[in-house]
Amino acid sequence: MSKGSNNNPSRRQFLSGAAVAGAGIAVAGAARAGDPLITEVQQWARGLGEGVDATPYGLPIRFETDVVRRNVPWLTADPISSINFTPIHALDGTITPQGCAFERHHSGAIELSKDDYRLMINGLVDTPLVFTYADLERFPRQTHVYFCECAANTGMEWAGAQLNGAQFTHGMIHNMEYTGIPLRTLLEEAGFDTSAKWVYVEGADASSNGRSIPMEKALDDVLVAFKANGEALRKEHGYPVRLVVPGWEGNMWVKWLRRIEVADAPVESREETSKYTDTLANGVSRKWTWVMDAKSIITSPSPQAPIRHGHGPLVITGLAWSGRGAISRVDISKDGGKTWETARLAKPGEKMALTRFYLDTTWNGEEMLLQARAMDETGYVQPTKAQLREVRGENSIYHNNCIQTWWVQSNGEAENVEVS
C-alpha cells in the first residue's frame, strides 16, 4: 500500500487533520471548527510579561514542576545515606540538567567553599602536593560529555519486576558535560612513581567514600572536574571539585575530592569489599567489576509516560549507553523480543555518553511488550535478564544491565513486567 493511502495514512495526514475521523486525532480538526485557542487573542497576548531580571537564575516554568528527582523512602533507613532518581521519563535529548541529575550520598551532601577547598596528592610521588581551588584553575582543562551511572541502577529488578517507572528502574544515571583537569596532569605535577599500579581517592565528607583505581585508568581519561554543563558543580554533585571516571560505576566518581594517594596495591576499602561487588549464585562475590556494560531503556511510552494522544503516529524513544565505548545500534521489540526493528539514533554514539534513540511508528490500540536492546562498538549485545541470571542468580544487587520490558495496554497505560 502506498504511503498516504486510506489504509495506511501518513504521519502528515494524521497531523494535518486529514485522518482525524479514522484515528481520533482532533488537533487540526478542532482548529477548523473554531478552536478559540487559535481563532481568538488570548490573555497572555493582551499584556506584558515579566522583565529580564524577574528570575536572576532561571528556573523551569511552573507547568513543568512535576519534572523532579524522586526517592523511594523504603529503600534506605535514612535519606542522609540514600539516593534519588533522575526523571528520565520526562526528558529528551541526552544532556541531564544539573537540577534533575540523580544524587547518591553516603553521609549527606556537604557545603564546602572554594576558599576552604584543598586537594592533596601523596604516596609514591617525588613531591607531595596540596592544591587550592585557585591552583587547579591554572592547569590546562578539557571538556567531555560522560554518563554517570550508579552500580545499583536497576538493582531492584534482579528478582522480578519491582518499581513501576523508568525513573525508578533506570533513573540512577545522568549525562553531563564535565570540565576539568586530566588526573594524569596532576599526577605528573607531583612526579608519581611510574611503577605504581594504583591510586586511592577519597572525599572530604564524613564517609570519605574511598576507592582504589588502577593506574592505567587514572592515566587514561579520569578528570578532576569543577564544572558541569558549563556551570559550577551543584552541592549534591560534589561542589567544588569531584572525580569523573568515564564508563565506570558512579561510586568511583568521588565527590568533594580531597586526597589522591599513589600506591602499589589497592586499599581494599569498605566501598570496594563489603559493597559494590557482584554476588554470584554460589555465594561467591567478585570484585573489581567497575565497567558499566551496554544498557538501554525506553523512556516513552513507559509507566510514567503513557500514551495519551490516542491512535496514530507514535514516537517510541529512550536512552542507550555503554561504559566500554560508543553505542552503535539500538533495536526495539514490540512483542517481548520475538521480532526487532532497528531504531534511529539521534546522532552517532559517543564514547561513555548517553545516546538518544527513536522509532517512529503507528499505534492503533494494540497491546505491546516494549523492549530495547543496545549494542556498542565492541560488538557487545545487551543481555536478557535470564542470560544474566545464568551467571549471577537472583541475589545480586549491582550491574544489572538486562533488557527491560514495558507492557503497553490498549488504553495507552504501561506497566513494568518481566517476560520469561
Automatic annotation (TrEMBL):
Recall the GO molecular function terms of this protein's record. heme binding; molybdenum ion binding; molybdopterin cofactor binding; sulfite oxidase activity
The protein's required cofactor(s) are namely: Mo-molybdopterin
UniProt domain Moybdenum cofactor oxidoreductase dimerisation: residue ranges: 286-404
Where does the record place the Oxidoreductase molybdopterin-binding domain? 112-268
NCBIfam families of this UniProt entry?
sulfite_DH_soxC (TIGR04555)
Give one GO biological process term.
sulfur compound metabolic process
Please report the name of this protein according to its UniProt entry: Sulfite dehydrogenase
Q: Which InterPro entries match?
A: Ig_E-set (IPR014756), MoCF_OxRdtse_dimer (IPR005066), Mopterin_OxRdtase_euk (IPR008335), OxRdtase_Mopterin-bd_dom (IPR000572), OxRdtase_Mopterin-bd_sf (IPR036374), Sulfite_DH_SoxC (IPR030835), TAT_signal (IPR006311), TAT_signal_bac_arc (IPR019546)
Q: Which UniProt keywords apply?
A: Metal-binding, Molybdenum, Oxidoreductase, Signal
Respond yes or no to whether keyword Signal is given for this record: yes
Q: Where is the signal peptide?
A: 1-33
Q: Name one Pfam family in it.
A: Mo-co_dimer
